[in-house]
Structures are given as structure tokens and as C-alpha cells.
Amino acid sequence: MDRGLNDSYMPTVATRFDNLGVGFAPYLQPPPEGVIRWTVGEPGFPTPEPVISTAVSELLDGKTKYTRGQGSPALCEAVAHHLMKTSKISVSPENVLITPGAKQALLYSYMTVLNPSDEAILLSPSWASYEPMISIIGGVPVNVPVDRKNFHPDMDAIRSSITDRTRMIMVNSPCNPTGAVYTREEIEEIVSIAIEHDLWIISDEIYSRLIWNGGEHVSPATIEGGKERTIVISGWSKTWAMTGMRVGFLAGPEQAVRAAVKCQANSASHIPTFMMEAARVALDCDDHVERFSDAYRHRRNLIVQGLEDIPGLRIVNPEGAFYLFIDVTGTGMSDVQFADGALKAGVQLIPASLITGGEGFIRVSYAASEEDIKEGIIRLRSWLLE
């Protein structure tokens, strides 16, 4: 088309964004005043004071310049020690990369293991950003439904989904949005499948310290044959209430980490310099982690007990993280209709049909304050039982 010099127009953007979703983002916006917010997966606690004071001290000391892109040696060493202490994962500090949030670590890991048109298995429903991230770099997400009774993996379904283009399996245990914690036997079988088909495992372990019912966190990196093909992703946001500080990490085989380091060197460079020592200090704040975990466990029990007897709701007791994944199909409403009705009743919820495999479910975050949980229960019961 011929355009005059004075015509106002712009070139088209890349087509990769045409059908790219934004997951739960529309329902993560602050609700109208007076509405209880059960949507955001953000710890309802202040960041530990030693973290804040260290960050401020580092700023005042002039730690505002470029530094080692991979992360300070002290922080990488502390992460390696932390992984061994909490998850029995053995990794060298040289094979740890500190990233601007765990989300960035996930993106680097996908860029590291996927070529265009490679397939990545997601255990559906999965966290809202996995599928768009894989798509944006040219990979092909393959959603494999989990068992709806308990949200645990369906191994036969995983096996039947593998093709000659499959390159990786995504594992998230404890899981956002379902709260499932995979058993040792399930993780072992996933590793066995990965070995059999020469696949990478990307293991998002951001909620590994938040496990209930006496369960255990089992990383694929601790299973025989798993260490050589697993990239572990985690960060500081959920465990230490540091969501806005944007600090995460990935750890894994040397070849994979070297590739991820190149991704960061040519994009984000490194996390804020003053945050490196603050992040290291956070790893020693176990008393805060225990206090947070005890509160989440209490809030989980509170919200389950408050909702489980409402007709039409099917609730699977969450095993970890701080999410409740509620089947609302028994109410006769779709998940969007349910969320809209709840909003009118004064509670903001997330309809899970925004993600693949989430149709008919609502995701609830019980990271909200205890007061908001109690008031939200009152409002929902009044609406649904009137």
C-alpha cells in the first residue's frame, strides 16, 4: 500500500504475539475498594528485617555498579549450600546462576533446551506463564492432563504424548495452581521416562519449603540419572516474602548453566548489585520461613474447613504451596460465572479457564491475611447458601 509522507502508521509487530495469552493477569489487578482479594500468590507477610537492612546498607555502601553477571561468588556458594541443606541437591557454586526472579530463570532454561518447533510437555493445568514462555521462543507446548482426582501426574498420558520432537518435561511440585505435591515414586517415574527418551526436566521448585500433611519435597535432581538432565528453578519471592525484589536462580548441569549465563549476559546482565548480599542473608532466615509456613498451614485449614461443606464445590486438600483449586462445576456455573458472582458478593477469585486444562475450576490463594480469609468465607457462604 502506498502511503504519503504525512500518513500516520506503524509497522506490524511480530506474529508470535498474535495468540499469546497473559494468563491470570486480568484477575490479578486490584479489585474495587471493599472487595476481598483471594487472587495474588504473594506472601501476606513483611520481608524479613535482616534482608531489608542489608539491602539498605549495601545501597548506602555504594553497591550500585556492574558486578559479576552470574551472581556474587558468596551468593552462588550460599545457594549451593542451601540446595543441599533443604533438598539434598548436590551442585557446584559454578553451576548456579542468579537471575532477576525465577520467571527469568524459567525463560533462560527454555531457551537453553528448546530449539524452534521442539515440544515441551506441561502437566496441565500448570502455572499460567509456562505455556506462553515456551511459545514465545518458538517451542511447542504439549499439555498433558493430570489425574483430576488428586492433580497428580498421569504417567500413561505422559508416555503417550511423547514424539520424536519432544525435548523436555516441565515439573512443578508443589504445584501452582493445584497444590499437588508429587510423590517420590512419581518423580522417579518421570526421571525414568526422561532417561528413556533423552529428555530434559525443568523443575520449578519455588514452593519447595511450603509442604503440608507431612509430605516431602523430592527434586528430580536427587534421583539417579536425574541430575544430568534436570535444571532446577527457584527463588526468594514465595519463601521469604521478597516478590518485588526480583531475585531467583537456576542450577543444573554445567553445559546448561553455561548456556543460561550467555542468555543473561546478552539480556539482563545481572540482578541489582545491592540485592546479592541481601539475598544471601535471606537464606539464613529460617525462623521467618518456619513462622510463615505455620501461618500458611493454619490458613489452609481455615479456608478448607470454611468452604468444603458448600454444595456444588469439590475441594482437594492442597498438599503444598498456598493455593486451593476448587471444582465449581457442581454449582451449575462455569468458572467465569462463579468468579463474576463471587466478585459481586465481595470476593475476587481467578477463573482457571484462563489456562489450558483449568475449565470448571477456581484458583484461590490463601496467602491472604487471616482476617481476609475469614471475611471471604462469610461472604461466599452468604452468597452460595442464601
Overview of this protein structure:
Helix content is 36%, strand content 15%. The protein is of the alpha/beta class and 386 residues long. The protein folds into two domains: 16-47 and 287-385, Aspartate Aminotransferase, domain 1, CATH 3.90.1150.10; 49-285, Aspartate Aminotransferase, domain 2 (3-Layer(aba) Sandwich). The strands form three sheets. The chain has a seven-stranded mixed β-sheet, with helices on both faces. The protein has a four-stranded antiparallel β-sheet with strand order 9-10-13-12, covered by helices on one side. Helix 4 (130-136) links the parallel strand 3 (119-124) and strand 4. Helix 3 crosses helix 7 (254-265). The longest helix is centred in the last third of the chain and has 22 residues, at 286-307. The termini are far apart. The mean pLDDT is 95.
Search tags:
Aspartate Aminotransferase, domain 1, Aspartate Aminotransferase, domain 2, 2 domains, seven-stranded mixed β-sheet, four-stranded antiparallel β-sheet, 13 strands, 15% strand
